[in-house]
Amino acid sequence: MNPLEHLSWPFFEERHREFATTLESWAASEVRDVQGDDVDTLCRRLVRQLGDAGWLRPTVAGAAYGGAADVIDTRMLCLAREALARHAGLADFAFAMQGLGSGAISLAGTAEQKARWLPRVARGEAIAAFALSEPDAGSDVAALQCTARIDGGHAVLDGEKTWISNGGIADFYVVFARSGEADGSRGISAFVVEAGTPGFMIAERIDVIAPHPLARLRFTNCRVPLANRIGAGGEGFKIAMRTLDVFRTSVAAAALGFARRALEEGLHRATTRKMFGQTLADFQLTQAKLAQMATTIDSAALLTYRAAWQRDQGENVTRQAAMAKLAATEGAQQVIDAALQLFGGMGVVSGHPVERLYREIRSLRIYEGATEVQQLIIGRDLLKAAFR
Ligand SMILES: Cc1cc2nc3c(=O)[nH]c(=O)nc-3n(C[C@H](O)[C@H](O)[C@H](O)COP(=O)(O)OP(=O)(O)OC[C@H]3O[C@@H](n4cnc5c(N)ncnc54)[C@H](O)[C@@H]3O)c2cc1C
Question: Which of 42, 79, 94, 236 qualifies as a cystine partner to 190, CB 3.0-4.6 A?
Answer without folding.
Answer: 236
